[in-house]
Amino acid sequence: MKLEQLQETIEVPKAVRDFEPEWGIVLGSGLANVVEEVDAILHLPYEEMRGIPISRVPGHHGRFIFGQLAGQRVIVAQGRAHLYEGYSSE
Q1: In this structure, is residue 90 part of a structural domain?
Q2: Could you identify which of 13, 22, 26, 42 might form a hypothetical disulfide with 66, taking C-beta atoms 3.0 to 4.6 angstroms apart as the criterion?
Q3: Using an 8 Å Cβ cutoff, are 17 and 11 in contact?
């Protein structure tokens, strides 16, 4: 998916529209505690963003965290949807 298509699909909250992460991190349930190290400016549940599939797997919190980790701007996906939950790969 191209960036333009993504921006049309997802409503990005005003608080983070100008946020430019240097890193994107996708956490599974085994790394969920990494978010404790992030100096967060916003926790954004997936259900608040149109177009983001919501995971129903225990331990996958289903939210984005915007902030700083080790001096770097990051966006962290805490949990993700899985194909076995009925979602397509697209």
Answers
A1: no
A2: 42
A3: no
- Beta strands across the sheet bearing 23-27: 23-27, 72-78, 63-69, 39-45
Q: What are the structure tokens assigned to 29, written together?
A: 């349930």
Is the pLDDT assigned to residue 68 strictly greater than 60?
Answer: yes
pLDDT digits (tens, 9 = 90+) for 26-50: 887 777 788 899 999 988 888 877 7
Q: Which two tokens stand for residue 48?
A: 């608040």
Tally the domains of the chain: 1
Give residue 60's domain range: 3-85
In a domain, 56, yes or no: yes
Is residue 18 one of the residues assigned to a domain?
Answer: yes
> What's the pTM value of the predicted model, to 2 decimals?
0.75
Pairwise CA distance, residues 63 & 74, whole Å: 13
What pLDDT is stored for residue 2 in this prediction? Answer: 52
